[in-house]
Fold this protein.
Amino acid sequence: MARVRCITEMGMGVDVHGRDATKAARRAVSDAIRHSSLGFFRMLGKTAQDMFVEVIVAVPEPSGVDVAEVARELPYGTVTVKAVKGGLEVPAETGGDSIIIANAAVIVSFDDGATR
């Protein structure tokens, strides 16, 4: 079966103090999904648990993202999270504290049900 992409949502999240890439990534995912209510899948004979949800989060230091924690932002489906290099780190005017900005893409797909 092939997966068919149905929804792509984008979001942005920020950790203003603490340089926490995971917090910024969670906020970016939350931002992406908070403006959606996906009801169309019932027309396809699917449930929310049938969704495949792929998350790509971009932060300055991808190794600093706890992908399991970010995945918990998604309430349904089979979720995978990948952290990649991107986003933005804004240095503080003084001291070592920086603002971390994360970007997220949340991609929802379903199996098309066709056998090949």
